[in-house]
C-alpha cells in the first residue's frame, strides 16, 4: 500500500512541498488545522507514524533505521519537486534523521528543515522514560500538560495512548544519532520557557551552514498556543526562500 504514512492536508500541484512530522504521542491530524492558514503557494503533507490513528493496527516502530527506511520509501516519489521538512519535538528529531539519511542515499535533499521545540539528539539518548511504569508515565504526561484530563482519566483511552508514548520515548532514547554536519540549511523554532537557547543552539554542531533561530512564547506546545504566529513564520520563510 502506497503513501500510508503521507497524508495530504492541502494540495497545490505546483506548490512548495512542506512535510510535517508530529510530536511524541501525537499523530498527523495535529496539522489538519493548518489547511486554511498555510499559504496557497504551499502543498502541506502530514506524516503519520505507524501504530496510531488510521495506522493503529500496525506495529509501533522503535528502531530508527527501520523507520527511516520506511519513511524514505514513502517520500521518495515526492522528491522530484522542491520540499521542506518541519518537525515539532520528536518530529524534529525524526526530520533531522531523515534529512541526514536522504543526503546519504540520494542526490536530493530538503531545501531546508525547520526543527521546532527539539533538543539536540544527545539530550534524549540514554534517558529511561520508556521504562517508566504506567502510573509514572501517566503522571509525567499530566505534568507536561500534553494530555487533557478527560483522556488521562479514561482507562480505555490510556490503554491505547500509553504504549504509543512509551514507544516514542524508546525511539528517542535508544537510537543514537551521529553528530555529523549535514548540508541542508536549518531554522530552529523555540520557546525559551521550554528549552534554554544555549542548549537548543547546540544544533549548530549538526549543520554545516549557519542555523537561523526564531523565538516564540508559549512553552513546549507553542505550536498550538501560538499557532497563528508559527504558521505566519512558516509562510514567510517559505515564500521568501522560493
Automatic annotation (TrEMBL):
The chain crosses the membrane at residues 83-102. Keywords: Membrane, Transmembrane, Transmembrane helix. The keyword Transit peptide does not apply. The keyword GTP-binding does not apply. Residues 17-235 form the Thioesterase domain. One of its GO terms (biological process) is lipid biosynthetic process. Belongs to the thioesterase family. This is Thioesterase.
Amino acid at each position: 500500500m502506497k503513501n500510508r504514512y503521507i497524508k495530504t492536508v492541502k494540495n497545490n500541484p505546483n506548490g512548495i512541498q512542506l512535510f510535517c512530522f508530529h510530536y511524541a504521542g501525537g499523530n498527523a491530524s495535529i496539522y489538519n488545522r493548518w489547511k486554511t492558514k498555510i499559504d496557497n503557494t504551499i502543498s502541506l503533507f502530514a506524516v503519520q507514524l505507524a501504530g496510531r490513528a488510521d495506522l493503529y493496527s500496525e506495529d509501533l516502530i522503535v528502531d530508527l533505521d527501520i523507520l527511516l527506511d520506511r519513511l524514505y520509501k514513502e517520500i521518495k516519489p515526492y522528491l522530484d519537486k522542491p520540499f521542506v521538512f518541519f518537525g515539532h519535538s520528536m518530529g524534529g528529531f525524526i526530520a533531522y534523521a531523515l534529512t541526514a539519511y536522504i543526503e546519504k542515499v540520494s542526490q536530493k535533499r530538503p531545501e531546508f528543515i525547520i526543527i521546532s521545540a527539539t533538543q539536540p539528539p544527545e539530550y534524549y539518548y540514554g534517558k529511561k522514560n520508556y521504562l517508566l511504569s504506567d502510573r509514572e508515565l501517566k503522571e509525567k504526561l499530566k505534568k507536561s500538560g500534553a494530555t487533557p484530563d478527560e483522556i488521562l482519566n479514561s482507562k480505555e483511552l490510556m490503554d491505547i495512548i500509553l504504549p504509543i508514548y512509551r514507544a516514542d520515548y524508546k525511539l528517542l532514547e535508544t537510537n543514537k544519532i551521529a553528530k555529523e554536519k549535514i548540508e541542508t540549511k536549518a531554522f530552529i523554532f523555540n520557546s525559551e520557557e521550554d528549552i534554554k537557547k544555549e542548549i537548543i543552539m547546540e544544533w549548530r554542531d549538526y549543520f554545516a551552514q549557519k542555523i537561523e533561530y526564531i523565538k516564540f512564547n508559549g512553552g513546549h506546545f507553542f505550536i498550538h498556543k501560538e499557532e497563528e504566529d508559527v504558521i505566519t513564520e512558516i509562510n514567510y520563510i517559505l515564500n521568501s526562500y522560493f
